Amino acid sequence: MVSFFYKYKKLRVRVAALLKNAAGEILLVKQRKNKKDYWLLPGGGIEFGESAVDALARELKEEINVEIENPIFLLLNENIDPKGQKHLIQLIFGANIKKGMEPSISQKEENILELKYFSTSELENIEIRPDIKSYLLSHSELTPSAYIKSKWITE
Fold this sequence. Notes:
By secondary structure, the protein is of the alpha+beta class. The chain is about 20% helix and about 35% strand. The strands form 2 sheets. The protein has a 4-stranded mixed β-sheet. A 3-stranded antiparallel β-sheet has the order 3-2-7.
């Protein structure tokens, strides 16, 4: 029953980083899908058996050539396609970029067109996917939420 459901429906679990520069601006990356440009937090999919924090570190290294420190879980964002074809669960972490590193688009990265830091006022006029703009505009401080990584209990 479960395999039948997932064969025709698409569930994606994604990690994303809310990274700020010294001026408090938020780093976003631009992608193009179906001839439409939009901005999103850098990150990507979690591979089976990979922790969320490990996936975040891997994705940021692969996409924007940075390593992070002190990741803190901020929120879970759920986005469901009204047509019922896609379902996205996004785990968003705040983090610091390691000293001396500057984000740049990886030469191997095919999906990212641009990266840019945005001030709060600039966020108002851009399309962000999934639409977490209200969160970004109302949370200037990174407030941690509960994130528990528990050990697997064997039978």
